[in-house]
Design a protein that fits this description.
There is one protein chain. The protein has 209 residues and is an all-alpha fold. The protein folds into two domains: 109 residues, no CATH class; 69 residues. Keywords: Membrane, Transmembrane, Transmembrane helix. It comes from Paraoerskovia sediminicola. It is a multi-pass membrane protein.
Length: 209
């Protein structure tokens, strides 16, 4: 197994070059595995389930040659949200259910990070488009659907990264705990990113007109 060779800080959802067995898997197979894992996470229950889930996520990163630094880079932006979520769940339903809920969320984000880090965007688009082609007989544009779903997949780590950067900007200004300022900065950044994406799509003739 050959390890990937990331350099510098790893933003959430960043692609990491490598030649591991996970890198070489077809994009369609990885997307199907991620979908199956998402469903399987709903069955996670109790401390044993949490331990098994943690082992699976660790194994996925190990096989992909990504290592703990990459795993942490994916879930690090969620840390304060997890604190609030864990505290709320603990208060409402108890410590074990709180642990289970947080584990499901972290595992899903981490596994999605593995898929995004080991798969080129164009391969994701091609896999989704191939799967959607049977729907063309019903008037569905497979290419547009593939693009939409690909953008949705990429949007999750992008939003997480935007929030993390907004928090860092607030910390630099001494306003780390100002929730309103954080929300405004994150919203503005998200809107700018969405506008830039829209401009890029229009430039390629992929707008709705």
């Amino acid at each position: 197994m050959s390890r990937a060779t990331p350099s510098g800080s790893l933003p959430a959802g960043a692609q990491v070059e490598g030649d591991s067995s996970v890198h070489r898997l077809p994009a369609g197979a990885k997307l199907l595995a991620l979908a199956a894992a998402s469903v399987a996470l709903l069955a996670v229950d109790g401390v044993v389930g949490v331990c098994v889930t943690a082992a699976v996520v660790a194994a996925a990163h190990l096989v992909a040659g990504l290592g703990p630094r990459h795993a942490w880079s994916q879930v690090r932006p969620l840390r304060w949200f997890l604190v609030v979520l864990a505290g709320t769940q603990w208060w409402l339903v108890g410590p074990v259910p709180a642990l289970v809920v947080c584990t499901r969320l972290v595992a899903l984000v981490a596994l999605a990070g593995v898929v995004l880090a080991t798969t080129r965007t164009c391969d994701v688009l091609d896999a989704i488009e191939r799967a959607a082609r049977p729907l063309e007989r019903f008037g569905v544009d497979a290419g547009r659907l593939a693009l939409t779903l690909s953008l949705a997949i990429r949007a999750v780590p992008a939003v997480v990264e935007i929030v993390a950067r907004a928090r860092e900007a607030g910390r630099a200004r001494g306003r780390e705990h100002d929730v309103r300022a954080l929300a405004v900065r994150a919203t503005v950044s998200a809107m700018r990113r969405a506008e830039a994406t829209g401009e890029a799509l229009r430039a390629r003739g992929l707008d709705d007109q």
